[in-house]
Design a protein that fits this description.
CATH class of the largest domain: Mainly Beta
Largest sheet: 4 strands, mixed
Radius of gyration: 19 Å
Strand order of the largest sheet: 3-2-5-4
CATH superfamily of the largest domain: HesB-like domain
Shape: elongated
Oligomer: single chain
InterPro entries: ATAP_core_dom, FSCA_dom_sf, HesB-like_dom_sf, NIF_FeS_clus_asmbl_NifU_C
Organism: Pontibacterium sinense
Structural class: alpha/beta
Protein name: NifU family protein
Number of strands: 10
GO molecular function, one term: iron ion binding
GO biological process, one term: iron-sulfur cluster assembly
Length: 183
Amino acid sequence: MRADIQLTDTAQDYLSQVATNEGNPDLRIGVSHPGTSLSQAFITFNKETTDDDEVHQYGDFNLRYSRSLALFIDGLAINYRTNRMGGNLHLKAPNIKTMPDLPADADLSLKVSAILEGHVNPALAEHQGGVAVDRIEGESVYLKFGGNCLGCGNAERTLVDFVEKTLKEHLPEIETVSDVTRH
């Protein structure tokens, strides 16, 4: 799937200037914690390309993104607004916080995020807490707790008795689940 991305003229001018100043025509659209309430879209300088990249060309610069993110950034609107301090780039993605039905071959990170959002975080939210994927290494999942889970004396018990158990029930390929939060 190719995501629909809309750039205002001011955003296109700004990104063109940034790419020219950096001497790098490739910019990457990324999404932190896709499909969760913590989702945010961002643009960075692209250093590496992959076969999974989808590319949108805009004159003298390109916007790249991983095809696995297309569902989340479809409808992305990018605008640049000037102010007294210079300006700000604004990214608005209407689907970024929505977890779609994932295909069987979806990234493990997306599958874990879907389980956390659908089964774990609603329970943790009752105590003003939550958990998100920090990273995936092989079949090992590293999580970060937030909200009232920070500093909670029951965080380890919650991880083992609830979060890890729930993840492994839904995703048996997971070998280990670890908390990397500094409580």
